[in-house]
């Protein structure tokens, strides 16, 4: 004999009812037995919940309940056939809804996630995008996230990580230096919109981070990777080293949390309404992308070399607006110059 479920406590019953009503509205027509199976409850508990719903509603302007202020069900179907059909509901449609612009922004974000290898073909993401589209106050704008070369490479890199095979590729580091690398891929990590491969580099004989969009001529070798169980692999993407550069900057207080990964220490001094802190970077060129991502919120104070690099990069970008083809320079901070 099946063990009877324990009666729901008041908080659990409220959670159940908040889920039960949308379920009935979505199903439109549902048997009591089917609903009981879906929620893991007895059929009598489902019938009691239906009767409770039928006495619930939202009072009108007079503060009293009129016929149209209450939920109503098809009583003949319920009492004769044990079938639940809500024929009138209240308040549900008055819930705040996303604007078309808000829904479009969320859908674009989900499309970006769908483009990643681990989420490709995800039914749950597709279902969520459909619900956002249907639930918006008006039809969202149609957006598409284009696949990049990095997206195409990610699938091959992930397969190499899974199979334990070496990778070979041409790599251009943040300083613009290029070379052929042979690595043992360890794992794939992400930082903002960028993807990185953390791997043991046979050229450098150490663990390095490689930005995927800087790779080219990628080849998955048939050679298995070496054993690295005894090697210290960092848990975080970026690690400090003795060769790192300290850069003093003034930042808007609300921006400090965005720079947490780069802070050399927790000290901060207020200067003219801003916080003066020290960032630690692998090289001065790593400042370019960081400053560009926080326009007007970060000012480089020292050293002079860092100020000059950022100023020259900004001037070059500004000059590009006068050309038909604007030059694009990007950089990032990494474990070393390979980053």
TrEMBL record:
Residue intervals of the WCX domain: 245-316
PafC HTH domain ranges (all copies): 12-134
Signal peptide: none
Keyword Glycoprotein: no
Domain annotation WYL: ranges: 154-219
Protein name listed in UniProt: Proteasome accessory factor C
Pfam families given in the database record: HTH_PafC, WCX, WYL
InterPro entries attached to this UniProt entry: CBASS_pafABC_assoc_protein (IPR051534), PafC-like (IPR028349), PafC_HTH (IPR043839), WCX_dom (IPR057727), WYL_dom (IPR026881)
Species whose genome carries this gene: Agromyces ramosus
Lineage, highest ranks first: Bacteria, Bacillati, Actinomycetota, Actinomycetes, Micrococcales
GO-annotated cellular components: proteasome complex
Keywords for the protein's UniProt record, in alphabetical order: Proteasome
Domain of life: Bacteria
UniProt xrefs under PANTHER family: PROTEIN PAFC, PTHR34580
């Amino acid at each position: 004999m099946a063990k009877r479920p324990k009666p729901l406590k008041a908080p659990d019953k409220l959670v159940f009812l908040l889920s039960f009503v949308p379920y009935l509205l979505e199903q439109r027509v549902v048997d009591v037995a089917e609903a009981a199976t879906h929620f893991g409850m007895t059929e009598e508990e489902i019938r009691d919940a239906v009767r409770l719903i039928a006495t619930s509603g939202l009072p009108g302007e007079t503060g009293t309940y009129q016929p149209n202020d209450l939920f109503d069900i098809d009583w003949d179907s319920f009492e004769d056939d044990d079938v639940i059909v809500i024929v009138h509901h209240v308040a549900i449609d008055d819930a705040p809804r996303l604007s078309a612009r808000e829904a479009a922004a969320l859908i674009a974000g989900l499309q970006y996630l769908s483009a990643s290898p681990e989420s490709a073909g995800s039914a749950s993401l597709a279902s969520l995008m459909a619900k956002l589209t249907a639930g918006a106050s008006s039809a969202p704008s149609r957006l598409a996230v284009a696949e990049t070369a990095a997206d195409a490479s990610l699938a091959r890199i992930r397969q190499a990580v899974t199979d334990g095979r070496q990778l070979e590729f041409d790599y251009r580091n943040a300083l613009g230096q290029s070379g052929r690398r042979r690595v043992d891929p360890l794992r794939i990590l992400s930082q903002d919109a960028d993807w990185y491969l953390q791997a043991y580099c046979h050229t450098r004989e150490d663990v390095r981070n490689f930005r995927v969009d800087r790779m080219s001529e990628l080849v998955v070798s048939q050679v298995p990777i070496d054993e690295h169980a005894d090697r210290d692999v960092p848990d975080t993407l970026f690690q400090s080293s003795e060769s790192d550069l300290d850069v003093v900057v003034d930042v808007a207080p609300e921006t400090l949390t965005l720079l947490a990964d780069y802070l050399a220490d927790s000290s901060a001094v207020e200067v003219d309404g801003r916080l003066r802190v020290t960032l630690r970077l692998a090289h001065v060129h790593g400042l370019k992308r960081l400053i560009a991502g926080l326009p007007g919120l970060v000012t480089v104070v020292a050293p002079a070399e860092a100020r000059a690099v950022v100023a020259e990069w900004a001037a070059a970008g500004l000059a590009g607006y006068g050309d038909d083809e604007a030059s694009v320079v990007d950089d990032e901070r990494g474990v070393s110059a390979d980053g």
